[in-house]
Design a protein that fits this description.
This protein is mainly α. The protein contains 3 helices and no strands. Helix 1 packs antiparallel against helix 2.
Length: 65
Protein backbone atom coordinates (compact mmCIF):
# COMPACT_ATOMS: atom_id res chain seq x y z
CA UNK A 1 0.00 0.00 0.00
CA UNK A 2 2.90 2.34 0.72
CA UNK A 3 4.20 1.85 -2.81
CA UNK A 4 0.79 2.72 -4.24
CA UNK A 5 0.61 5.97 -2.29
CA UNK A 6 3.49 7.69 -4.09
CA UNK A 7 1.98 6.58 -7.38
CA UNK A 8 -1.22 8.59 -6.68
CA UNK A 9 0.58 11.94 -6.25
CA UNK A 10 2.64 11.18 -9.33
CA UNK A 11 -0.55 11.01 -11.37
CA UNK A 12 -1.80 14.23 -9.77
CA UNK A 13 1.33 16.03 -10.88
CA UNK A 14 0.70 14.90 -14.46
CA UNK A 15 -2.86 16.14 -14.27
CA UNK A 16 -1.68 19.45 -12.88
CA UNK A 17 0.50 19.95 -15.94
CA UNK A 18 -2.54 19.54 -18.17
CA UNK A 19 -4.50 21.98 -16.05
CA UNK A 20 -1.78 24.60 -16.43
CA UNK A 21 -1.85 24.20 -20.21
CA UNK A 22 -5.63 24.52 -20.24
CA UNK A 23 -5.46 27.55 -17.95
CA UNK A 24 -2.95 29.22 -20.25
CA UNK A 25 -5.18 28.58 -23.23
CA UNK A 26 -8.20 29.95 -21.39
CA UNK A 27 -6.25 33.02 -20.27
CA UNK A 28 -5.23 33.76 -23.85
CA UNK A 29 -8.84 33.44 -24.97
CA UNK A 30 -10.04 35.67 -22.14
CA UNK A 31 -7.45 38.32 -22.99
CA UNK A 32 -8.54 38.28 -26.61
CA UNK A 33 -12.19 38.46 -25.64
CA UNK A 34 -11.57 41.33 -23.24
CA UNK A 35 -9.76 43.29 -25.91
CA UNK A 36 -12.52 42.63 -28.39
CA UNK A 37 -15.16 43.59 -25.85
CA UNK A 38 -13.42 46.92 -25.27
CA UNK A 39 -13.32 47.61 -29.00
CA UNK A 40 -16.98 46.64 -29.36
CA UNK A 41 -18.00 48.81 -26.41
CA UNK A 42 -16.25 51.85 -27.87
CA UNK A 43 -17.65 51.25 -31.33
CA UNK A 44 -21.09 50.41 -29.95
CA UNK A 45 -21.14 53.61 -27.92
CA UNK A 46 -20.68 55.68 -31.08
CA UNK A 47 -23.91 54.60 -32.82
CA UNK A 48 -27.18 54.89 -30.89
CA UNK A 49 -28.59 51.65 -32.27
CA UNK A 50 -25.75 49.40 -31.07
CA UNK A 51 -25.51 50.73 -27.48
CA UNK A 52 -29.26 50.28 -27.06
CA UNK A 53 -28.92 46.57 -27.74
CA UNK A 54 -25.81 46.30 -25.61
CA UNK A 55 -27.48 48.03 -22.68
CA UNK A 56 -30.54 45.82 -22.92
CA UNK A 57 -28.35 42.71 -22.91
CA UNK A 58 -26.52 43.93 -19.82
CA UNK A 59 -29.71 44.78 -17.94
CA UNK A 60 -31.36 41.48 -18.78
CA UNK A 61 -28.72 39.23 -17.19
CA UNK A 62 -28.43 41.47 -14.12
CA UNK A 63 -31.99 40.99 -12.80
CA UNK A 64 -31.98 37.37 -13.91
CA UNK A 65 -28.91 36.59 -11.81
Amino acid sequence: RDRNEPRAPSKGKGKKHTSIGSSSDKRSSSSNLGYRDLSTSTQGFYPPKQPSYFHHSHVYPQPYG
